[in-house]
Amino acid sequence: MVDARCRQSTMAARRIAELLAVLTVVLAVVSVLLTPMLAHADENGGIFVKDGADALSASTEDYVKTANEKWEKDADLPAQLLVVTADHVPDGQSIEEWSMSLAEKHKPGDKDKDTGLVYVVAVDDHQDRLEVGYGLEDEIPDAKASDLIKQAEAEYKQGDYDAGVRVLVDSIGTQLYGAAWTPSTDDTSNTCSGVGSMEHTSADRAIIAVSVFLVLVFVAVLFFRRSGSSDGTGSCTGTSHRHDGDDWHWPTSVSPTFISFGNGSSESSWSSGSSSSSSSFGGGGFGGGGASGSW
Asked: Fewer CB atoms inside 10 A, N or C side of the chain?
């Protein structure tokens, strides 16, 4: 009786270990397949966009990146714009402190000319700020920065964050480069409002989550059906368990590696940009110039 119970316990433990091993492999494969999908939004904007609020469409993120890639090549004013969205201003910070902390951390703009810009949008707080680097304060003084963000805020009042960010990008380009700046003529019919974009992103993640769950359930069902139909033998001191009718040999103990999945919403998961772009932030300096607003 004791031996029978021991064998049953050993077999049960082995089956659990085997299942964990199988699930670990499945999770590893799924992780590799899903990582590009989860990072897709950040890749569209390269290093220039962090859409933590899921308020921007892929085409708008690419719009920001394209503008940056053109601006940073200018010999006189190699400007760079970092766009960051979030649901709320971080706890314990004002929007000015938040934007300055991002400017000091990522340092967009040319190191020698300090031609960086940081634009932050707190969607649920209905606040935004444009931080202007030292070298652009003559071209974009505080009053002009206020005018620029008011144009974007007019679109935000309608719930259209894509249009607002695009308007800001075009206005900055015109202010800095005048006639030399040609706004993109790309078709914008595929862009959506901030609300629509958030719903689309959430739906995509829900589909991914359900797909992963169904795959794991399917694997588990197949595994237990095969295990239950086999006549396994073993002992309390055995080193392996064999399923009759096939060539599976499993170890008696498995230490699975648990895999975590990120959703790209935290700054630590910020993509450094797609492989097709060689852009990087140049080390620009900031002194607090710019403007804050609300809508």
From this structure: N
CATH number belonging to domain 44-194: 3.10.310.50
| H/E segment holding residue 118 | strand 116-122
pTM: 0.59
Please say whether the beta carbons of 282 and 109 come within 8 A: yes
Which one-letter amino acid corresponds to residue 115? T
How is residue 116 written in tokens? Answer: 């960086």
* Location of structure tokens 């800095």: 176
**What is the tens place of the pLDDT at every residue in 19-66?**
777 777 776 666 655 554 444 444 566 689 999 999 999 999 999 999
| pLDDT given for residue 67 in this prediction | 93
28 by DSSP, 3-state: which?
helix
Closest CA to 59 of 208, 161, 199, 175: 161
Integer Cα distance of 286 and 126 in angstroms: 24
Amino acid identity, position 183: P
The string of pLDDT tens digits covering residues 67-81 is 999 998 988 889 999
Residue ranges covered by each domain of the chain:
2-39+198-267, 44-194
Cα distance between the two ends of the chain: 76
